[in-house]
From TrEMBL:
Top-level taxon: Eukaryota
UniProt xrefs under PROSITE patterns: ALDOSE_1_EPIMERASE
Residues reported in the UniProt entry to bind beta-D-galactose: N80, R81, H175, S176, Y177, D242
Organism this protein belongs to: Sander lucioperca (Pike-perch)
Function recorded in the entry: Mutarotase that catalyzes the interconversion of beta-D-galactose and alpha-D-galactose during galactose metabolism. Beta-D-galactose is metabolized in the liver into glucose 1-phosphate, the primary metabolic fuel, by the action of four enzymes that constitute the Leloir pathway: GALM, GALK1 (galactokinase), GALT (galactose-1-phosphate uridylyltransferase) and GALE (UDP-galactose-4'-epimerase). Involved in the maintenance of the equilibrium between the beta- and alpha-anomers of galactose, therefore ensuring a sufficient supply of the alpha-anomer for GALK1.
Name of this protein: Aldose 1-epimerase
UniProt keyword terms in alphabetical order: Carbohydrate metabolism, Cytoplasm, Isomerase, Phosphoprotein
Subunit comment: Monomer.
Key word Isomerase present: yes
Catalytic reactions on record: alpha-D-galactose = beta-D-galactose; alpha-D-glucose = beta-D-glucose
Cell compartments where the protein resides: Cytoplasm
Pathway assigned in UniProt: Carbohydrate metabolism; hexose metabolism; Carbohydrate metabolism; galactose metabolism
Record-annotated active site: H175 (proton donor), E309 (proton acceptor)
Annotated EC: 5.1.3.3
Length: 351
């Protein structure tokens, strides 16, 4: 049985009041903010039964209002990068704000992560809803969007839905940064990761997919068997992982698939992720640089955490061979992602 409660958490200047929703089961406690539909914390047990908060974040509302790294937030209207911030849809060219090198990232300068969502209690959790007006961040169509967070036992489920009045690209994900050792852990080098992907997307020097869908065999991106993250990071070109792993192929039918599993052997904590999305962006916090002060005064540095952003493939709006990311009038956008938090004592194997 999950207990659900709500309290006012503060006032965001220029935006309005922000509520904190708490979802509590016997195994896991989740805190959610109406600002950005942010997952503020996830408390889960280790093999010793000790509860730790495994999500990066801030102690106060001001931290989230001024945050530029999308900690815990739902990002949209389009997660990840759009090359040069431009796309053509139904014969019309759209130019978005450029906010990541030469590209548009995570919905624009004021994406869904900076909006106040409307929270409503549902069984086992909270539904957060938002209206994105026609022209919001230069995207076409008014979009009604919702994300429901529900907690059952050790599994947190995020269900995304959207409808639009005009054809528009859409790609929603949650951008939580995890460290299964808990707050204050310096890095994730002692975490073990596996990702259920046969292929990944190589990128250019501005992190836009080249268009190639490359098999992981014989590359540092072959994470089909569990590997220690620290040594693996030394094999990856560039500052770390920030790549889309392909969970399905374009045209595959909608179905929920196992995406990834991360284990922290020292604490025994395990995170498993499944999703209906065709991809997952595995990101190892390459651009956190110690300048951000997070919970308890901890400074979040490079490789201090990881993200598993379940989503469509990056720049799909410009790449015809990628899964379709256009939501048209009368259609329903619907995806689900599940995060399951367990400890090794519940598993037969140690990794």
């Amino acid at each position: 049985m999950t207990q659900v409660s709500r309290q006012q958490w503060g006032e965001a200047v220029g935006l309005g009041p922000v509520d904190l929703w708490v979802l509590q089961s016997s195994q896991v406690r989740v805190e959610v903010l109406t600002l950005g539909a942010i997952i503020r914390s996830v408390w889960s047990r280790g093999k010793d039964g000790q509860m730790e908060d495994v999500v990066l974040g801030y102690d106060d509302l001001e931290g989230y209002v001024s945050d530029k790294r999308y900690l815990g937030a739902v990002v949209g209207r389009v997660a990840n990068r759009i090359a040069r911030g431009r796309f053509v849809l139904e014969g019309k060219e759209y130019q978005l704000d450029i906010n990541n090198g030469p590209n548009a990232l995570h919905g624009g300068l004021r994406g869904f992560n900076k909006a106040i969502w409307h929270g409503t209690a549902v069984e086992g959790g909270v539904q957060l809803s938002l209206t994105s007006p026609d022209g919001d961040q230069d995207y076409p169509g008014e979009v009604q969007v919702s994300v429901s967070y529900t907690l059952e036992g050790e599994t947190l489920t995020a269900e995304y839905q959207a409808r639009s009045t005009k054809a528009t690209p859409i790609n929603l994900t949650n951008h939580s940064y995890f460290n299964l050792a808990g707050q204050g852990a310096a890095d994730i080098y002692d975490h073990v990761v596996s990702i259920s992907a046969q292929s990944y997307l190589p990128v250019d020097d501005s992190s836009i997919p080249t268009g190639e869908i490359r098999r992981v065999d014989g590359t540092p991106f072959d994470l089909r068997k569990p590997l220690l993250i620290g040594p693996q990071l030394k094999e990856v070109p560039g500052p770390g992982f920030d790549h889309n792993f392909c969970l399905s192929s374009p045209g595959d039918t909608w179905s929920e698939r196992q995406a990834a599993r991360v284990c922290h052997p020292a604490s025994g904590r395990v995170l498993e992720v499944s999703t209906s999305q065709p991809g997952v962006q595995f990101y190892t916090a390459n651009f956190l640089d110690g300048s951000m002060t997070g919970k308890g005064g901890v400074r979040y540095g490079k490789h201090s955490s990881f993200c598993l952003e379940t989503q469509n493939w990056p720049d799909a709006v410009n790449q015809v061979s990628f899964p379709d990311c256009i939501l048209r009038p009368g259609e329903d956008y619907k995806h689900v992602t599940r995060f399951t938090f367990t400890a090794l004592r519940f598993h037969k194997t140690s990794t």
